[in-house]
From TrEMBL:
<protein>
    <submittedName>
        <fullName>ROK family protein</fullName>
    </submittedName>
</protein>
<dbReference type="InterPro" id="IPR000600">
    <property type="entry name" value="ROK"/>
</dbReference>
<dbReference type="Pfam" id="PF00480">
    <property type="entry name" value="ROK"/>
</dbReference>
<dbReference type="InterPro" id="IPR043129">
    <property type="entry name" value="ATPase_NBD"/>
</dbReference>
<dbReference type="InterPro" id="IPR036388">
    <property type="entry name" value="WH-like_DNA-bd_sf"/>
</dbReference>
<comment type="similarity">
    <text>Belongs to the ROK (NagC/XylR) family.</text>
</comment>
Length: 415
């Protein structure tokens, strides 16, 4: 038998199997492209996956059959365009959801989050946090279970955001500084126990709130498209940071990377919970702004809301508030400049109170970063506000969605 005939037979034997495997292997990457808005049409999906149009069509059809996306085969053409428009792809509005939960110093909240980072439903936030993690997580899971009952949605998993470094692989909250929880609380195990007690047969995941906020912003918000994204945010108390590299969260060897709140910006400043003084954590959070402006924290409402109200309501009219804002901005800029020197990000996004500080005086903050950083002088690093509401909740949902993005068929078979 000649070589050409042998090769022809091999192609006839292996091609169908190869096409089938390629299509199945492309389900996860295709879903992630639609989930993050990078494949709005089948034509773009074909190009991004590097497959034939037929394979892309089969993959999109399979994801639609799974109830994850919708395919509009007859989209309307844009005015002035020529030719037949490509099939439009979007996440299924009535598809499954992830249960997302967040605990912070001023309370907790539960939500249901669909693909695309879309919040489907939220439960009213609680404003008290018990010193017993099991009590708190039991309440937040009960609130999430109520949302699932009310909506009748299928749940693929659950994610929890906490204001603490979370050690991996144990899932323990090492330093919940602004909660009364014990150090080293096994929050992931407690979370899963609460899910089981509520009758939810799903896997629970856990992560640091700012890490998860950065992940959500990278996939769906202000960080979209950045290759080296630095996120710094205040939360409700304290300061956290996160780094997303080439689309993946950089959490270090044990989940503890980017504890930027303990970067010193004023050696003679306030004592910090970590044992040092003048850390970002205590010099640029909501309490720091209130104190710098000579305002005592109110008896009700979150400190974050009080500080935001100060910036939006009195910055333009009260010199003391303007001076306090400038002081906190200078401290934040000094910290960001140090991080730019070390990490060389291509974009910085600011969340919590920091986004409001940026809005109050963007030129001042950018000038401080540029003046005090090597790379800022050679080329300004974009500094932008976070854009997602409840980005830590959306990020918690991303943890639950990740197994589905990795392997939709297997994940949905067990969910």
């Amino acid at each position: 038998m000649c070589l050409l005939e042998t090769q022809s037979q091999n192609r006839r034997v292996t091609s169908p199997r190869t096409r089938l495997d390629r299509g199945r292997n492309a389900l996860g990457p295709a879903l992630e492209l639609v989930h993050t808005g990078r494949a709005p049409t089948r034509a773009v999906l074909t190009t991004e996956l590097g497959v034939t149009r037929a394979t892309a069509g089969a993959v999109a059809g399979e994801l639609q059959t799974l109830g994850l996306i919708t395919v509009d085969s007859r989209p309307s053409a844009a005015p002035g365009s020529q030719g037949r428009p490509s099939h439009r792809l979007s996440v299924a509005a009535d598809g499954p959801v992830a249960l997302a939960a967040q605990v912070h110093a001023d309370g907790f909240r539960a939500a249901l989050v669909g693909l695309g980072g879309r919040i489907v439903a939220t439960a009213p936030g609680c404003v008290t946090v018990d010193a017993d993690p099991a009590q708190v997580l039991g309440e937040v899971v009960a609130a999430g279970a109520g949302l699932l009952r009310d909506t009748g949605r299928r749940c693929v998993g659950a994610g929890l955001a906490v204001p603490s470094a979370v050690a991996e692989p144990e899932g323990t909250a090492l330093n919940p500084l602004h909660l009364a929880w014990p150090a080293g609380a096994p929050v992931r195990d407690i979370f899963n126990d609460c899910l089981a007690a509520a009758g939810l047969d799903v896997t629970g995941h856990c992560g640091n709130d700012i890490n998860l906020a950065a992940l959500a912003e990278h996939r769906h918000g202000a960080g979209h498209g950045a290759a080296h994204l630095l996120c710094v945010a205040t939360g409700h108390r304290g300061v956290g940071g996160a780094l997303v590299l080439e689309g993946r969260l950089h959490s270090g060897s044990a989940g503890l990377a980017l504890e930027v709140g303990h970067l010193t910006v004023d050696p003679g400043g306030r004592p910090c919970h970590c044992g040092s003084r003048g850390c970002l954590d205590v010099e640029t959070d909501p309490l720091a702004l209130l104190e710098a402006a000579g305002r005592a924290p109110g008896p009700a409402g979150s400190l974050l809301a009080q500080a935001q109200d100060l910036l939006t309501g009195e910055h333009a009219t009260d010199p003391a508030v303007r001076d306090a804002t400038a002081t906190v901005i200078d401290r934040l800029g000094l910290g960001l400049a140090g991080l730019v020197n070390i990490l060389n990000p291509d974009r910085i996004i600011l969340g919590g109170l920091h986004r409001w500080l940026l809005a109050a005086d963007p030129d001042r903050l950018r000038a401080v970063v540029e003046e005090r950083s090597l790379w800022g002088r050679s080329g300004a690093v974009p500094i932008e506000p976070c854009t997602l509401d409840h980005n830590s909740l959306v990020g918690a949902a991303e943890l639950a969605w990740q197994p589905v993005l990795d392997d939709p068929l297997s994940a949905l078979a067990t969910a």
